[in-house]
Every structure is written in structure tokens, then in C-alpha cells.
Design goal:
Blueprint: H1 14-32, E1 57-58, E2 63-64, E3 76-81, E4 93-98, E5 103-105, E6 109-116, E7 124-129, E8 131-138, E9 141-146, E10 156-162, E11 172-176, E12 190-197, E13 207-213
Antiparallel strand pairs: 1-2, 3-4, 4-5, 6-7, 6-13, 8-9, 9-12, 10-13, 11-12
Length: 215
Amino acid sequence: MVWNSTSPDGTKSVKANETIIQANTTYIETELNKDHFWNIGANEDGRHKFAQMPKYVDGAPATPTSPTIAAGMDLAYFSRLKTAIEATVAQDVQPYARNANAIMQLLGIRACVVFNYAAGAAQTIVYSHNVTSVTKTASGNYTITYTAALPTNSYLVLGNAVRNNADTGKGILLSLQGNTVLNNVKSTAMCKINTFSQAGSIVDPLQTWVVMFGG
């Protein structure tokens, strides 16, 4: 199906133009329904189902750039490669927003999990995205396994926990486990964390949450 750029066509009869105009109407409905609601219902019509866009790249070799803001507009939302070096990594296409003041990368959450402490190895996951399991390997030591592999091990890991202690003045700290090889504790498949008291002693939390994003 193609778009008829000349419609109506003054060189054709009214009858012939009916076919051209109907073809254009069908084209519009088919194309809009790919990511919009169109001719579906009064509550849906004209609204987005979702937004898809190709990465914004200019130049050769690929050098990521950003679009300018059109006259009368206040914000541009787009996708682009983070850096030219990472242009070969397909998953490295990230969402961005630009206003009059700055260009902002909208870091996507690659994985996240909230889990409650359980006495055995398998911890109780109460909320998660792209996390298959959380396993306790020792007191205060936990391995978080991803469902789908992350693109690289350059992602950010942030988290915290609730101290399992009746003393309201006692907090808890969270960090990645120490190692001489990064991939042993932070890889595309998993990450390993420690939870310990403010005094430096390893402790098991009441509840823990961890977010992995960017990268």
C-alpha cells in the first residue's frame, strides 16, 4: 500500500478519484493504527498506543547528535546512541530529552528488585523487573540474577535496605561485594551485594531494594 501524493487528481474522472481517495484513507488508518488508536472508539481515538523511533545519528562513522527544538516547541524527546565508541552495541540506544537549557539522558531501568529476608538461600521477591532470583550465599551476601542479560557490565547499581533491629537508631549500608575481577561481582548476568551495619558488621536486612540502570 502506498500514499497517493496527488489527490484528487484533476486529470482523472470523479469515479477514478474515488479509488485514489479511498486508498489514501485506508493508508492513513493502517499506518496510524501501528502506534495510535484510530477509528477504534471515542475514548481511544487519537491517543498513542506507544512511541517508536529510530536512533538519532548523524555523520559517518556514527556520531551521536541531538535534534534542535523546532520553533514554538518546548521539548524534544528522541533516542540516540550514547557515544560513537558504543555505536556497535545495539542495546546502547537510550532515550533522551532536550529543552532550552540542557540535553538529558533518561536512564532506563535495566533491572530492579525488592526482596524480603528469608531464612533459606532463596529470598522472597516482592517486586521485580528483569530479575529471576535473589540467593543468599552467606550472612549479608546476596546474588541477584537477571532474567535477560544486560548489554554490558557498565550499569549503575543503587540500593538500600531496612535494618532488622528494634533500635530505630540503627541503619544499614549496601554495596557490591569486593573482588579483584569486576565480572565476578557485576556482570551482564548478575550482581553480588553485601549488606552491613554502620559499624561494619555483616547483617541480614529485613527488606532490601536494588536498582540497575543505564550502562
